[in-house]
Amino acid sequence: MSYLHDKNVLVTGALGGIGSAICLAYARQGTGIIIHDRVAADEETVAALKAQLLSVGAREVCYQQADLGSRQEIHAMFARLREEQRDVDVLVNNAAIQKTSPIADFPDDLWESITAINLVAVYHCTKQALVDMRRKGWGRVINLASVHGLVASVDKSAYVAAKHGVVGFTREVALETAGQGITVNAICPGWTDTPIIAPQIEARQQRLGSSRQEAIRHLVSEKQPDGGLIPPAHVAELALFLGGESARHITGTAMPIDGGWTCV
Q1: What's the number of domains the chain is made of?
Q2: Which of the residues 3, 26, 123, 159 is marked catalytic?
Q3: What are the EC numbers (predicted)?
Q4: 238 in Cβ contact with 250 (< 8 Å)
Q5: C-alpha span between 45 and 26 (Å, rounded)
Q6: 204 and 120 in a common domain
Q7: In the annotation, is 26 catalytic?
Q8: Quick one: 211 and 235 in the same domain?
Q9: Residue 174 belongs to what domain range?
Q10: In the 3-class helix/strand/coil scheme, how is 212-249 assigned residue by residue?
């Protein structure tokens, strides 16, 4: 994938979990990496991130802070990138938040925040990145949806609604960009070993009075037949493939990587 060497990859929510793994996968191909997160990382943290990605082959690395719940901050981030002459060739919409609660008890503000970050921000980031992609006649948009973009689970109304929206948005934008050298795809992971599911694991551990590993098996096997958490690196490899030349005719898909969850 040496042709990726002159490309820039923007990964939202990149400080941990799947986002970090995707940054590493693309860095190994010599791309420029634009790390985003909503926190204002200190200089030491940014320096360590840059050193890690540069050490595995990234052409260059920069950090962008923005609250994706704010349209103004998203627009400001892309304005900074344009001022720095950093086009976004590959956009990975990865940032997400989650809360489990029955709908009757779901805090309204939090419901709206989840849909804002998990869905509305995908629209704004994609719209901004498409300006660069259409000008160059090449681009990749990779949306981290979820298995919950394909099926539902109880007590996850905001997350399920947002992720179903991401899958629908992916398909629609794929139609708008077909024939323009741009592909738009969604990845739909099942239970993945990331911080976002830690509260559910801890709750299950307390309920069972069990070890963490036993709690994970109990939680995961309810939905995912293979019974194990998916390593973020496996999701990152799929994201790297979708950014590659071999995937140029793959667009508008929602690809499960879910241990068999959606087989039934």
Answers
A1: 2
A2: 159
A3: 1.1.1.30
A4: no
A5: 20
A6: no
A7: no
A8: no
A9: 2-192+231-263
A10: HHHHHHHHHCCCCCCCCCECHHHHHHHHHHHCCHHHCC
